[in-house]
Amino acid sequence: MRAYLDYNSTTPVDPEVLAAMLPFLAENFGNASSIHSPGQAARGAVDRARESVAALLGAKAGEIVFTSGGTEADNLALFGLVFALKTAQKHVITTAIEHHAVLNSCQELERQGIDVTFVPVGRDGIADPEDIRRALRPETVLISVMYANNELGTIQPVEEIGRIAAEADVYFHCDAVQAAGKLPLDVNRVGADLLSISAHKIYGPKGAGALYVRAGTPLAPQFHGGHHERDRRPGTENVPGIAGLGKAAELARVNVASEAKRVAELRDRLEESLLAAIPSIRVNGGAGHRVANTSNLAFSGAGGEALVIALDLQGIACSTGAACSSGAIEPSHVLLAIGLSADDARSSLRFSLGRHTTPEEIDYARSVIPAAVERLRSLSPHAVSTVAAR
Ligand code: PLP
Q: CA-CA to 304 of 20 to 30 Å: which in 5, 139, 155, 231?
């Protein structure tokens, strides 16, 4: 038996998405910039995908810029906006729990002389809009806050933050990579001027994404080349990837509500049963305001990485928030930001469910995980304190 519980990391390509892509890898291989018929066939696919992504976001087709994924969309939003503005002093506000695509971009902005405020979040993994408001300065040009956190699933108060940005006449970028397909999206409701999505998180291919750019928002291209994407992102279009993103966006729009309901039931069944079966575990960020598919649990005293490997041996795919940098396991910046100790952060796992998760997979995971945690805790130097905590 196998259980893939790592959909926030990536999703399988939906068969309908694959079918929409294949012609553009084979017979319809034209360059979308060519004026002959093979080129026009490719152009048609790019145009249809643009309409479909715009429909998912409540945007106009001309406001969609295709990119190589969420990371590029985030980079284009941040550097593109900040460097398009000519004011002498610039200040950016973001949060401590952004994805590295935003966080590391903001650190690079700092190195380039831009002031950045990283607003902390509470134990609930949610940024307080009033903290964002208090961070505003006369020279603030941009607020960048994610919609749903990739590790915790927590939903940020983006509509309120969008209103704060509008009142202060500051641009608002929203990284909606983990919200797309999980929550209904509408750039006007959010008040976003810039919003990022990624195909491979919504059953599309890896290496394709899009940035919504509200009409009139200044944006300096970050690559230099031809006139593609209305001079906002040069480079021959990834036609199969874009066609796949278009189909994935269409499916996400149609399925979002029914999928969330089904997946929430499975996620809750898994979470409740682990909470009942395993002593001393906690839901990181709490079980409050979060997307339906994500459960991040702290298994104090059981090493997260060892647990991922032990579960993988039993066919269960899940992840730690931790990243391995220069050979050392760094605890997740998100888990540290919500107040976990480094040890607890290193003992946490994220389970993320999706379109193909079955009740049988969840039952299998429920039957395997408690014993794996028990075993690792008994081997851990923290085992004594864990037992004492029971
Ligand atoms: N933003 C968030 C919130 C993400 O979860 C991810 C991917 O994990 C990205 C951005 C980066 O997207 P991509 O993998 O398409 O570069």
A: 155
* Same domain, yes or no: 79 and 207: yes
Say what the pTM is.
0.96
pLDDT in tens, 71-104: 999 999 999 999 999 998 999 999 999 999 999 9
3-state secondary structure the chain: CCEECECCCCCCCCHHHHHHHHHHHCCCCCCCCCCCHHHHHHHHHHHHHHHHHHHHHCCCHHHEEEECCHHHHHHHHHHHHHHHCCCCCCEEEEECCCCHHHHHHHHHHHHCCCEEEEECCCCCCCCCHHHHHHHCCCCEEEEECCCECCCCCEECCHHHHHHHHHHHCCEEEEECCCCECCECCCHHHHCCCEEEEEHHHCCCCCCCEEEEECCCCCCCCCCCCCCHHHHCCCCCCCHHHHHHHHHHHHHHHHHHHHHHHHHHHHHHHHHHHHHHHCCCEEECCCCCCECCCEEEEEECCCCHHHHHHHHHHCCEECECCCEEECCEEECCHHHHHCCCCHHHHHCEEEEECCCCCCHHHHHHHHHHHHHHHHHHHHHCCCHHHHHHHC
Find the residues whose C-beta lies inside 6 A of ligand 1.
Answer: 69-71, 74, 99, 101, 146, 150, 175, 177-178, 198, 200, 209
Average pLDDT value for the chain: 95
* 158/192 same-domain check: yes
Answer yes or no: do 215 and 68 share one domain.
yes
Catalytic-residue membership of 318: no
